[in-house]
Amino acid sequence: MRFLQTADWHIGRRLFGYDLLAEQSAVLSQVATIAQEEQVDAIVIAGDLYDRQNPNETAVALLDATIQQLNLSLKLPLLVISGNHDSGVRLGVGADWFAETDYFLRTTLASVDQPLTLGDTQFFLLPYFEPFQARQFLQDDSIHTVAQAMTQLVARMQAQFTPGLQHVLVAHFFAAGSTHSDSETTVAVGGLDAVPLDQLAGFDYVALGHIHNKNALHSERVRYSGSLNKFSLSEVDQTKGVLIVETAPALTVKFRPVTPLHDVQNIRGAFADLSDPDYLRQHQIDQTAYTGIVLQDTNIISNASGKLKAQFPRFLTMQREQSVQLAQRQHLTQAQIKAPLQLLADFYQQLTDKPLTPAQQTWAAETLKEVDRS
Amino acid sequence: MRFLQTADWHIGRRLFGYDLLAEQSAVLSQVATIAQEEQVDAIVIAGDLYDRQNPNETAVALLDATIQQLNLSLKLPLLVISGNHDSGVRLGVGADWFAETDYFLRTTLASVDQPLTLGDTQFFLLPYFEPFQARQFLQDDSIHTVAQAMTQLVARMQAQFTPGLQHVLVAHFFAAGSTHSDSETTVAVGGLDAVPLDQLAGFDYVALGHIHNKNALHSERVRYSGSLNKFSLSEVDQTKGVLIVETAPALTVKFRPVTPLHDVQNIRGAFADLSDPDYLRQHQIDQTAYTGIVLQDTNIISNASGKLKAQFPRFLTMQREQSVQLAQRQHLTQAQIKAPLQLLADFYQQLTDKPLTPAQQTWAAETLKEVDRS
């Protein structure tokens, strides 16, 4: 089995107000080209096809055209799950018809009981879910985190393993050890929604969506493909693309980059330089990219961003270097992050000059356990 | 060919704030039952499946379940067009897959060139369209009304008629001669969007959606099925249901009513009676219905609607008889309605004490011609 892994298309997303549809269309057609060049047996799309539960018509039309091309024109089997940005109900309309042409679209937890065998590989499709959905599906009120749910779901999937086949999980969640960029949605404080990597050890390969950085995990066997576009200034240094995964005879994973229609970049410099067309040309600075600018100047400059927009038609934002450095100094390292209960206790003490009573502590601890919706 | 004709489901609609989903689900399952009892060859759904371009998830789930039951479980061919309340783009996702199971979903004008032959009948599916879409599709900038577009579209369809078959048009528009209730969307002033009945003479039968009253037209051959639910107080006297159409050997059309889960009614009476549980019981007044109340009292009554709500849990609105009569007296008869240009001229004169100049009249007449979006 040789498949293309992609995820986090976020069709309909905007970047600082700019409509990215043409950017998304450009990389999506490269996915089709790569799939053909690599002669893959299937395409795996691991969630967040849309950016919103309720995408607008142009986003719907682009996804529809893309899926039609891949599945109906190129006759490629598609294995698709919904992500946290998708509405499973809206995305899932028609799924019973789509399976006829090997477009397998799964949007509910029930799909863990519907493994798909393609060639030498048994695929398990696990759409994004929240703990309350797992509580209902598994009929177990003790489930409050994604990891708790995964313990049972993985066991349930493993019980369905066909011996002699490769076993691949397609899922959309935050696997422990991942790093984050600004453009994913918030991760619950305390990591309530994180799935430890060792829970995934039973699978030969895990194709993940959710994190936009393809290098978020340092595992050969559990991989994020990352997004196809840079969706924030924190992603400027990432190379975007898809993974080509071969499960047998040995697992091999190859990255194939896509070329953006327009790049997203951060530029640091003096206002006099960055507002000077000659300087920009001489230094071969890409004026067509979506551009965030960090000014090194300290003096007041009248209408600085207006003048920079004249040179960078896809201007995003302007900051001063000092404030960037200040913000960076304030960034907490992982070790400094306090547990939610401690944060609450400190805050209460600060407000009232009293510590939490034991009863309050118990109540707060119980309530924090319930706070499992990200 | 024997088919069931329905339209204007408006799934997701609310009535004075009440969610009607359970009401809609109840009548939709009766449609499935009637289709089986009548052993129809197909079901025609003539637009406005949803109430909104952007329906919420519960509405999407109900339509999805309904279509799955009719097409996948009962194996009934479906001929479906989008109406003015639907988003053609959103509703149309998956249409290329649906045709595999004889679920023919058409949402663009291009479908006039894709007639469908089922048994002895050739169906033409014409989704709702606006004049600007016809201008683009027909590449004719002179089109400013639906009727103008229909002249060309009908000729185009007739050129594709297969001799010896029955020819049925499925469409969603306002056919001239229809009467209106409050719950359809506005009809353009001057009837710019109306289609004269004589334009439809070439078809053996025309299955229409748009008007909620099944008796809106007095034609055996051109019929609205009406909606399945009463969607406003102006529809209280209408019986809702579906049509069973047999095209051969002779055209026969039969109405099959559906039974509402809860009715919609208007009640007229004295406050003392209508707020008295004994009176209501003795007079067998349905207290479970969605109820609009017209009070005949003239005196001031403290918290009248609050007290009426206690007897009518699905209370909609309360009016006084006098104001109803006043409003009725102010209703204009058809003959009294002024042409748009005359209305504009009168309004201008009223504001400025001057008549429109000849130049202004020309400009206004031109502009009114452009105002063809309903």
If you had to describe this structure to a student in words, what would you say it looks like?
The structure is a homodimer of 374-residue chains. Chain A is of the alpha/beta class and 374 residues long. Chain A has three domains: 2-257, Purple Acid Phosphatase, chain A, domain 2 (4-Layer Sandwich), CATH 3.60.21; 264-330; 337-370. Chain A contains twelve helices and 18 strands. Chain A has a six-stranded mixed beta sheet with strand order 6-5-4-1-14-15, with helices on one face. Chain A has a five-stranded mixed beta sheet with strand order 7-8-9-12-13, with no helix packed on it. In chain A, a hairpin with a 2-residue loop joins strand 2 and strand 3. In chain A, helix 1 runs parallel beside helix 2, helix 5 (131-138) packs across helix 6 and helix 11 packs across helix 12. The longest helix of chain A is centred in the N-terminal third of the chain and has 17 residues, at 21-37. At the A-B interface, helix 2 and helix 4 of A face helix 2 and helix 4 of B.
**Oligomer designation:** homodimer
* Order of adjacent strands in the largest pleated sheet of chain A: 6-5-4-1-14-15
- Biggest pleated-sheet summary of chain A: 6 strands, mixed
Number of helices of chain A: 12
**Helical proportion of chain A, percent range:** 25-40%
Number of strands of chain A: 18
Mean pLDDT of chain A: 90
Order of helices and strands of chain A: EEEHEHEHHEEEHHEEEEEEEEHHEHEHHH
Give the uncertain stretches of chain A in residue-range form.
185-190
Radius of gyration of chain A: 23 Å
Gross morphology of chain A: globular
Structural class label of chain A: alpha/beta
Q: Architecture of the largest domain in chain A, CATH level 2? A: 4-Layer Sandwich
Number of domains of chain A: 3
The CATH class designation of the largest domain in chain A is: Alpha Beta
CATH topology of the largest domain in chain A: Purple Acid Phosphatase, chain A, domain 2
* The CATH superfamily title of the largest domain in chain A: Metallo-dependent phosphatases
Relative strand content of chain A: 15-25%
End-to-end separation of chain A? 35 Å
Largest interface: A-B, 21 and 21 residues
